[in-house]
Amino acid sequence: MKKTILILWIVLAANASFAAENIRSISTWNMKWLGGSMGTLDDTQDIPRYVNHIKTSKATLFAIQEITPSHAVHGVVKCHFLELIVKELNTDNGKWTFCIDKKNGSQRLGFLYDADRWKFFDAKTIYPGSAFKGRLRDPLIGLFQAIGDNALLKLNIINIHMKAFPDGDAKRKAQFSQLASWLKQHTVDDDVIICGDTNIYIDETGTASALLNAGYTELKDTEGTAIHEGTLSQRFDRFYISEGLKEEVDSAKQIVGEAALVDSLQEAAHGNYNDFDKHVSDHFAVILAIDVSEER
What we know:
Blueprint: H1 2-21, E1 23-34, H2 47-57, E2 61-67, E3 71-73, E4 76-78, H3 80-89, E5 96-100, E6 108-114, E7 118-125, E8 140-146, E9 154-161, H4 169-185, E10 192-197, H5 209-213, E11 217-219, E12 237-241, H6 246-256, H7 258-261, E13 262-264, H8 273-279, E14 286-291
Parallel strand pairs: 1-2, 9-10
Antiparallel strand pairs: 1-14, 2-6, 3-4, 5-6, 7-8, 8-9, 10-12, 11-12, 13-14
Helix pairs in contact: 2-3
């Protein structure tokens, strides 16, 4: 009997470890004008703080916003500070890399990812409609596939950065409506994550209703995600998942628990939010757990 119990315990422990191994953390992070001239950010001595925030998140794929390009190599847009961050991340033979869009001026969107954990296929800027005209950021869609012994998940990630400020609620609603229409009109794989800085304030209602009516589920942390005008109450940074990903997210929830399914990394500021805002960003990375395994 004792032998049977021991064998059962070993099997259960092995399965639990195997299940945990298939959990990947995907993040959205507004990096506050990284590489730009706004504020006093991006001193090279602060690079370890950016890297520490990324490592603390345990995420291996980031949708990033507010990236300012510094140069191009053979037509590929680069950001000097992202290059420094990647260099630091790869000091232990890592394979982190990034791509940023070619369209959005000084507030580019991009993806930062560990090439040991994710295969990147392509990224392109999309133009859902007139609500994105002018200085508003056009979404960036990237196609990724999880890499691993039991990983099969292939998904599209749509990186968004919607109209800012409280008086932009009507514009934000129009942007979500046009994005929902774009998704209906274009062939996109069933597995889609839409994430980024939505700029939706807590007291707004119905801003993303068109997306929810199209079958997407909104996921946000109970904690604040942005240091906005000295407060931590706003939950600007959110995820929207397609119906095709609900099973993968529900499976992750069973393994990591509901509290850890979506997590805003406020603790990375060590309680000194003004210092974090000054030296890193006015947003925290927000993480979504997802099960990438073949069997759930």
